[in-house]
Here is the input.
Amino acid sequence: MKKTMVFILLIGFHFLSCDTKNSNQKQQSVEPKSIGEIQRLDPDLDEIISPDVKIELLAEGFEWSEGPLWIEDGSFLLFSDVPMNTIYKWSENQGTEVYLQPSGYTGDIERGGEPGSNGLLLNDKGELVLCQHGDRRMAFMNAPLTDPLPKFVTIVSHYNGKKFNSPNDATFHSNGDLFFTDPPYGLVGKMDDPLKEIDFQGVYRYINNDSLVLITSELSRPNGIALSKDENHLFVANSDPENPVIMKYNLTEGGGELFFDGTELQRKGLRGLPDGLKVNDRGIVFATGPGGVLILDEGGKHLGTIHTGQSVSNCAIGNNGEYLYATSDMYLVRVKLKT
Here is the structure.
C-alpha cells in the first residue's frame, strides 16, 4: 500500500514537473523577439527610455511599411504598406491582419510605384483620414473603424486648380485645421512624372474644411509633419539626401528655422533620411532619420537613437504614451517608454 502511494506520488510529481517545464517553454516561446539597439548619447534619455529596454519586433515581411496610427479605443495599430496598396492592423492578441485594400489608389488602370496610403490619422469624428498617394488627395474612409471598407470621400485634392503630387503625411491641430505635406513619391515618375501638375513640393494648411493655405514651397522633399506641444510651431522633415533637415515653422508669427540637421549622421553612412515624426506630451520629438528613430529634446538636442538596422519611415505613440511604435522597411517594431 505504501509502495503504491509512493509510486503514485512520484508519478504525480513527474507530470507536475513536466507541466511546469512545458509551461516555462511556452512562456519562453512567446518572449518578444528583439532587434537592433538603442544608442544613448545623453543621460537625459534615461528619463524617456529605461536603460534595459529593447526594441521589440512585432511583425515583418512588408514591402515598405509606413504611417503607423495607434487606435486607443480598441487597442490596435494601423499602418500602411505603400507599394502593396494595403493597410494592416496589428494587435497584441490577434497579431497582424489585412485591414483595408485598396488604401491609396482606387483606379482601374494598373500602375507601379507607391500607390497606397501613407500617413494615417483620425479626425475629430473618429474617422480614418488617409494620405492617398495613388489618388493624390487627402480623404477619409466612409465606413466605421470596426468595419472598414475601401469607400473614400475627398477632403482636398487640388491647390489653385492643380492636382496634388501625392500627400504623404499629415496632422490635425486641436481646432480642426489639417496640416499635410505633398512630395512626389507617389507619382510613378516622381519629379519627372508627366502627370505632375504642381512645380513645387508644398506644405499646406487646410482651414475649416474650406481654405487651403500654402505654408512653404521651399522644401525639396517635405515629408513627416507634426505640431509642437503648444501647437504654435510646425515641424517638417525634408527627406532629401542633399538637405536632410527638420524645419520648425512659427504658426503665429510666420517664418521657419532649422531644428535639426542630419547631414553629419548621413555622412557616417547611416541608413535612412528625415521622414516621419511625432511629439509626445513632454515635447520630446521622435524623428525618423539617418540611423533610425532620433530622439530630440525641445531644443533639437540629439539624446539618442533607436537603431533597427533598417531605414525607419515613421512612428506613433500608443497605449496612452507607454509605447513608441515604428515602421521600419519590412518591420513593425516598438519600444517601451517611460510614462
About this structure: Residues 1-29 have pLDDT under 50 and may be disordered.
